[in-house]
Specification:
elongated; 4 strands; Translation Initiation Factor IF3
């Protein structure tokens, strides 16, 4: 019986995991990728321009629906677009109209590719 005891003890000891075999890898938080934010906003009034510009300066791509302000006042829309162009230019971003109802504003980290 002593022989069987020695055999089973060896097998049990061999199956137990050794703590030295495992190595903990450090978590590198600096390599965590940040996602680019894309926001959708409505431009119903000229006062909405400041809020939209802050989001672009914060690093978000903003798709702006201009239908509401366009139906109410073309002069106000032109003034808002002019303000967007100035703010985006200063921040080294980009701006483009999409159809008749949207304007896309990007920060300096993104560029709009205009197809051929």
């Amino acid at each position: 019986m002593a022989l069987f005891g020695k055999i089973f003890k060896k097998e049990e000891q061999q199956n137990e995991p050794q703590l030295e075999e495992f190595t903990e890898l450090p978590l590198d938080l600096e390599q965590k990728q940040e996602h680019l934010k894309i926001m959708i906003e409505k431009l119903d009034d000229f006062t909405d321009t400041d809020r939209i510009i802050r989001k672009v300066r914060g690093g978000a791509i903003v798709i702006v629906g201009i239908k509401g302000i366009k139906e109410r006042s073309m002069d106000e829309l032109k003034h808002a677009i002019s303000k967007f162009k100035t703010a985006v230019s200063v921040a080294n971003g980009d701006i483009v109209g999409v159809g008749d109802e949207f304007v896309v504003l990007t920060p300096s980290t993104a560029r709009i590719h205009r197809g051929e």
